[in-house]
Amino acid sequence: MQVFVRDNNIDQALRALKKKLQREGIFREMKARTAYEKPSEKRAREKAEAIRRARKLARKQAQREGLLPAAKKKVIGRAR
Fold first, then answer.
1. Do residues 16 and 3 make contact, with C-beta atoms less than 8 angstroms apart?
2. Three-state secondary structure of the chain
3. Region Disordered: start and end of each range (predicted)?
């Protein structure tokens, strides 16, 4: 993973790095590895994640077919 520092702006580079790490799921994995997870808890978590993924896929499919209204796009504006 690479993050380029432009104009010696370390703060901007750190924000970009954190965003990339978040997107890759590194923080979630580090948190999960800090403590032991019982096999039953692991199964329950993985099952819940699978259900969440399936629901998301079904929701996107329904939106593509026109059965549900399209998701609202997030507008990120900068106030200056």
1. yes
2. CCCCCCCCCHHHHHHHHHHHHHHHCHHHHHHHHCCCCCHHHHHHHHHHHHHHHHHHHHHHHHHHHCCCCCCCCCCCCCCC
3. 51-80
Sorted by where each begins, the domain ranges of the chain are 1-35, 37-66
What is the C-alpha separation between 35 and 69, in angstroms, rounded?
Answer: 41
The answer to pTM > 0.85 is no
Q: What angle do CA 67, 74, 20 make, to 5 degrees?
A: 115
- What's the rounded Cα separation, in Å, for the pair 13 and 2? 10
Mean pLDDT of the chain: 90
Distances (CA, A) of 20 to 5, 9, 23, 80: 14, 17, 5, 26
Q: What are 70's two structure tokens?
A: 């399209």
